Amino acid sequence: METQQAKTTDESKTGAEGTAGDEELAKAIMARHFRPSLIVTEAWEGYTFANLEIRIKESTDLYGAVLWPSALVLCHFLDTNRDKYNLTNKNVIELGAGTGLVTIVSSLLGAKVTSTDLPDVLGNLRYNVLRNTRERCQYTPSVTELTWGQELEQRFPRATHHFDYILAADVVYAHPFLDELMETFDHLCQEGTQILWAMRFRLDPENSFVGRFQRRFNLEVLYDLPSLSIQLYRAWRKDKRTEPSSGEDAA
Q1: pTM, entire model
Q2: Is CATH 3.40.50.150 what the domain over 32-237 is classified as, yes or no?
Q3: What is the pLDDT tens value at each position of the chain, 251 positions in all?
Q4: How far apart are CA 24 and CA 3, in angstroms?
Q5: What are the boundaries of each domain within the chain?
Q6: Taking a C-beta distance cutoff of 8 angstroms, is the pair 128, 99 a contact?
Q7: Strands 230-237 and 194-200, how do they pair?
Q8: What is the signed CA dihedral for 147, 231, 66, 101, rounded to 10 degrees?
Q9: Which residues of 171-187 are buried (b: 16+ CB within 10 A; e: fewer)?
């Protein structure tokens, strides 16, 4: 009986410590965000990544041009795991780039980034990307239109376009294009490609996307943050013989 009680106590302690650790991590991620201390003529939100201040302009009239917490989670992971997930000279594509924070941070960390989103978002996206990467990065990010599921082979031929990483933050939400998103992941993710995807859980239809995703891709949980309702995943294709390494030589 004493042994069983001790075991139960240890398990409770481990669970409590894990929850506390997740909460501390969530606080550290959200602390990356700051607002201007003085009234400014142009509204912006500030973030600190790659030891630099990043200023992001949102467009509140466009759903895709607002920065959501999942982007902070993904950026924090990239910034604090540079040794294991080294983006230097890596070919990276971001899906649903929105305000461009993930693209900017990836570029500051040395990646060659293709930043994609829908046409109505591109103006604000380009503004933020150029504002924060000019004369700061080895490679100027490319900002281009991508409608999920459309002209994928024409825009990104698999024979000539190989990406080391596909980045996505909060691309799964209540919209009718989840099949097209799956098709886009499937086309862009080749052997050796890794997907880093932060997702905020909201409704059953979008949550079930994870189960469908796992039929095609191996999935590993990197962060589980209940206080933010966000999980960060690493994924890679199932139809390959070996799992890609997460170091510099993953290609």
Answers
A1: 0.83
A2: yes
A3: 544 544 444 444 445 566 778 889 998 898 888 776 555 556 788 999 999 999 999 876 555 567 889 999 999 999 999 999 999 999 999 999 999 999 999 999 999 999 999 999 999 999 999 999 999 999 999 999 999 999 999 999 999 999 999 999 999 876 778 999 999 999 999 999 999 999 988 767 667 889 999 999 999 999 999 999 999 999 999 975 445 555 544 44
A4: 31
A5: 32-237
A6: yes
A7: antiparallel
A8: -80
A9: bbbeeeebeebbebbeb
- What tokens does 219 get? 């999935």
Give the total residue count for the chain: 251
